[in-house]
Amino acid sequence: MKKVILKDIAQHVGVSTALVSYVLNGQAEEKQVGKEIAEKIKLAAIELNYRPNQIAKSLKTQKTHTIGLIVADINYKYSSGITRAIEAEAKKKNFNVILGSSNENSEKFNELINVLVNRQVDGLILVPVEKSENSILNLQKSEIPFVLIDRNFSNILCNSVALDNFKAAYDSTKYLIKTGHKRIAFINYQTTLFNLLERNRGYLTALKEYGLEFSESWMPRIKAINYKSEMQKAINQIISKENNCDAVFFATDRLAIYGLKHINALKLKVPEHLSVFSFDEAEAFELFHCPITHARQPFEKMGRLAVNTLIDLINHNKIINQTYIETEFVIGKSCKE
Questions:
Q1: Could you give the CA distance from residue 270 to residue 288 in angstroms, rounded to a whole number?
Q2: Are 123 and 67 within 8 A, CB to CB?
Q3: What pTM value is reported for the model?
Q4: How far is Cα 109 from Cα 156, in angstroms, rounded to an integer?
Q5: How many helices (H) and strands (E) does the chain have?
Q6: Is residue 172 domain-shared with residue 152, that is, in the same domain?
Q7: Rounded distance, CA 277 to CA 193, Å?
Q8: Which helix or strand (DSSP H or E) is residue 183 part of?
Q9: CA-CA distance, 68 to 116, in Å (whole number)?
């Protein structure tokens, strides 16, 4: 069977080969090709079963129209949400996405970067992990286009799209204060990640500004390796007679799930005995008897900004842009008012 080429489509529609090339390479709008003609060309390509030669195309343009995406853990709701958003935006721009998960491991993170670079992706969108600063600095030296998403580093100036984690935690704590809570616990991981440390800072700043007392025992840090026993200890600590916290703010959705399991085991009623607020949502929340109030990350906006920033870099626009986005509140019934 004869391989269909651009010239065949051009003859079938009655236009030039250049016009066909513009349309099939996603340049119809840029080259001011009429919508009706563009649609005819696309339909003809389908009808004639046209298959582009990606290898030849890459050699000619020096681009593969492929983005490498590395998430921290594919099991996180954030990872699945941001992946879908990035893939949707990339598709609009005629880019494919190759996905890898580092499982929160810095060595695997670095290995995946090398694998994707060797696959000749045009650029990278990365959720960095703890102790991955050297990998990011090496990428900067190599001049491979990349954008950090969700997490960044205070000591590395590079393109990034992330939440304003300080403001999100500050506003969340403020919400609990405004709804009458006085003894608010905050449970986070023991970590060096800048985004999570900013959530600590937002929580503490809100308590201070509103003149509420604070005890270090209200702020347990969970070691990820022993999360079950650590969470049990943390919940027992904040509800003890000495602390008697009336609300708990979980720094991540995964921590909230672990915490809710132990709260259930203790037969504590939410929000009657303890109000619960989560940073981010989880599908498991739907199984809980009362809707959990949480701060939600706008995946679509983050994905769109990350892809468009990366494409600008790929097209040799070297402006550094650090974008911070605000969260959205979803009010459930887990906080006593």
A1: 10
A2: yes
A3: 0.80
A4: 17
A5: 12, 12
A6: no
A7: 21
A8: none
A9: 6
SS3 of 192, please? coil
Beta carbons within 10 angstroms of residue 66's beta carbon: 18
Number of domains in the chain: 3
Q: Which tens digits make up the pLDDT trace of 118-170?
A: 888 999 999 999 999 999 999 998 889 999 999 999 999 999 999 999 999 99
* 1 inside domain: no
Cβ atoms of 293 and 277 within 8 Å: the answer is yes
Bridge partner residues of 222 (DSSP):
189
Token look-up 């102790």 returns 131
For the chain, what is the mean pLDDT?
A: 90
Only one residue has tokens 């990278």, namely 124
Same-domain pairing of 96 and 245: no
Burial class (CB in 10 A: 0-12, 13-18, 19+), 117: middle
Residue 17 belongs to what domain range? 6-52
DSSP type of residue 210: T
* Same domain as 158, residue 305: yes
CA 175 to chain centre: 24
Closest to 329 measured CA to CA, from 187, 167, 207, 198: 167
